[in-house]
Amino acid sequence: MKKRILLTGAAGAIGHEILKKLVSLTEEHQITVLVKNSYKHRKLLRKFEDSIEVIYGDIRKKETTDIIAKDKDVVLHLAAVIPPEADFKKQLTEEVNYGGTVNIVNSLEKFSPDAFFIYSSSISVYGDRLENPWIKVGDKLQASPHDEYARTKIKAESFIQNSKLNWTIFRLTAIMHPSQKFDPLMFHMPLDTKMEICTTSDTATAFINAIEKTSQLNKRTFNLSGGKNCRVQYAEFLEKCFKISGLGNQPFPSEAYATSDFHCGYYEDSEELNQILDFQKDTINDYYEQFGNEMGQVKINLAKFFRYFIIKYFLSKSDPYKIYKS
User: Fold this and answer.
1) Where are the alpha helices (DSSP H) in 182-305?
2) pLDDT in tens, 178-234
3) CA angle 163, 174, 94 (to 5 degrees)
4) In which element (H, E) is residue 157 found?
5) What is each CA distance from 272 to 206, 227, 281, in whole angstroms?
6) Residue 161: CB partners within 8 Å, gap ≥ 6?
7) Which of 41-45, 226-230, 239-243 has the lowest mean pLDDT?
8) Within 10 Å of residue 46's Cβ, how many Cβ atoms?
9) Minimal CA–CA distance to 34: which of 48, 149, 25?
10) Which residue ranges make up each domain of the chain?
11) Which residues contact residue 36 at a Cβ distance below 8 angstroms, ignoring those fewer than 6 apart?
């Protein structure tokens, strides 16, 4: 009998990677996805509609979660408002990240009480770890100031843990997609931050493999990352990515970057989840290669040609640099 799988957030970078892997398993699973109704999302998911059930709706509405919660065996819940949008849309972030999670859990308790709930949380729940970058499950949860995303993730985790469902929580590290674009959010992380990334491909594999490992995951929280071969200091990571992209050596002054109140670090216990799900395949060098291949020579050449204007634009978007210059 096919397992009935529900995936939320299928239009996001990680959710979409999960979906691409899930559709190859339709002989084993009956797949339903929930995404927000928009032209962009309909265009993105159109090619999947013949093999899966796509529901366009709003997780903030109880009538939507009641519909998607019926007759489900496993739920992969990734729908969320993420930074930088989460930083300046506090109410929306609360309504989606916490309120939406409450809605779907309550609906599952009513319509699919035996469903297994897999929740995508974040390393941001540990807050600023510059002084002590070694992180493990059980460490104090403390969102950095003004980090609405982390705050809502902490609240949602607590609600899930106190629900009647069977559940597991994955606290995702910095997840890197090959098509990752530079964003002014990059200036919020101090240059001496320690990172342990994971690629979207490995992350998606973890969620897929979790479907068949629920008994080993039940009522447990895990740190999810790429492992020791994905550890790097942020300054080094940026330097490498800037060079690959055509922007050359670190093009921004140190004053463009924050000096505290972000998150990330090394997961001391990242191997625990990998021992169950066997997903840590890519290394930091694999990611650099993927990033370069995704950029392509044409984009790299364009970045080199317009380097001055690109640097000027991003520097104008750096909040720390604005404060420094004021």
Assistant:
1) 200-210, 214-217, 234-245, 271-277, 284-305
2) 888 899 999 999 999 999 999 999 999 999 999 999 999 999 999 999 999 999 999
3) 45
4) helix 148-161
5) 12, 10, 15
6) 167, 169, 219, 221
7) 41-45
8) 10
9) 48
10) 3-180+198-228
11) 11, 56, 57, 58
**Contact residues for 313 (Cβ-Cβ < 8 A; gap 6+):** none
Which tokens sit at 319?
Answer: 């909040």
**For residue 57, which phi and psi values (nearest 5 degrees)?**
-165, -175
Burial of 161-178, coded b for 16+ CB within 10 Å and e otherwise, reads eebebbbbbbbbbbbbbb
Task: Extract the tokens encoding 125.
Answer: 């729940």
Structure tokens at 278: 């066997």
8 Å CB contact between 232 and 197: yes
* Closest C-alpha to 170, from 205, 118, 213: 118
Give the residue-averaged pLDDT of 41-49: 90
**253-308 pLDDT, tens digit each:** 999 999 999 999 999 999 999 999 999 999 999 999 999 999 999 999 999 999 99
Measured distance CA(51)–CA(303) in Å, rounded? 39
CA dist., res. 83 & res. 149, Å (int) = 7
3-state SS class at 280: coil
Max CA separation in the chain (angstroms):
64
At which residue do the structure tokens 């997961």 appear?
Answer: 267
Tokens coding 167: 């559940």
Two tokens, residue 91:
């109410």
pLDDT score recorded for residue 326:
81
Distance (Å, whole) CA 246 – CA 305: 9
Burial class of 205 by CB neighbour count within 10 A (0 to 12, 13 to 18, 19+)? buried
For residue 288, give Cα distances in angstroms to 181, 196, 244.
Answer: 13, 14, 8
Fold (CATH) for 3-180+198-228 = Rossmann fold (3.40.50)
Residue with tokens 């990352």: 225
Nearest to 183 by CA among 310, 71, 44: 310
Closest among 136, 132, 133, 214 to 171, alpha carbons compared? 136
Tokens at residue 87, please?
């930083």
